[in-house]
Amino acid sequence: MKKLQYKIDIKASAEKVYNTMLGLDNIKTYEKWTATFNPTSTYEGNWDRGSKIYFVGTDENGKRGGMVSEIANNIPSKFVSIRHYGILDGDNEITDGPDVEKWAGGLENYTFDEHNGITTVTVETEADDEYLGYFDTTWPKALDKLKEISEK
């Protein structure tokens, strides 16, 4: 696993960026920026510390799938940490085996740092070598979309 980091400056308060990113006021804002990863991307659950949350979408055949995760930490408008520990295959949670072992326990962290009305969002995540190119291309596009939505 390699640690990756992506940053973007957004002309909006940390509270607004945080709410927009997590879809707290309207889940559609979360779905808009994460559509970069999967056009059907959404989540099921909540962002409370210790909560289970599913990050889900459907594939080209309409099959539901995604990640089974836990909110490891959530300090509103400051920091969110997600611990991924399983795969959602239809309605089945898979939490062990070779497909999960590659990345299980990996954290995805979001930091919101506001200065003078500009919020720097820092994303830190871990990825297997096979996904490095994908993340290096997709994360910047997703953060650009988050910026566009948050600055409206």
What is Rg?
Answer: 15 Å
> CATH top level?
Alpha Beta
Q: Which sequence of SSEs, written as H and E, runs from N to C? A: EHHEEEEEHEEH
CATH homologous superfamily caption: START domain
**Helix count from the secondary structure assignment:** 4
- Largest sheet features: 8 strands, antiparallel
Mean pLDDT: 93
Distance between the termini: 36 Å
- How many β-strand runs? 8
Shape call:
globular
In CATH terms, what is the fold-level topology?
A: Alpha-D-Glucose-1,6-Bisphosphate, Chain A, domain 4
Helix/strand-derived category reads alpha+beta
Strand content: 35-45%
Helix share, percent: 25-40%
Q: What CATH architecture do you see?
A: 2-Layer Sandwich
InterPro entries: START-like_dom_sf
Protein name: SRPBCC domain-containing protein
Protein described:
The protein is an alpha+beta fold and 152 residues long. The chain has a single domain (2-54, 71-82, 106-150), classed as START domain (Alpha-D-Glucose-1,6-Bisphosphate, Chain A, domain 4), CATH 3.30.530. 26% of the residues lie in helices and 43% in strands. The chain has four helices and eight strands; from the N terminus they run E-H-H-E-E-E-E-E-H-E-E-H. It has helices at residues 14-22, 27-34, 98-101, 132-150, and strands at residues 2-10, 42-45, 52-58, 64-75, 79-89, 92-94, 107-115, 118-127. Strands 1, 2, 3, 4, 5, 6, 7 and 8 form an eight-stranded antiparallel β-sheet that branches. Strand 4 (64-75) and strand 5 (79-89) form a beta hairpin. Helix 1 (14-22) crosses helix 4 and helix 2 (27-34) packs across helix 4 (132-150). The radius of gyration is 15 Å and the shape is globular. This is SRPBCC domain-containing protein.
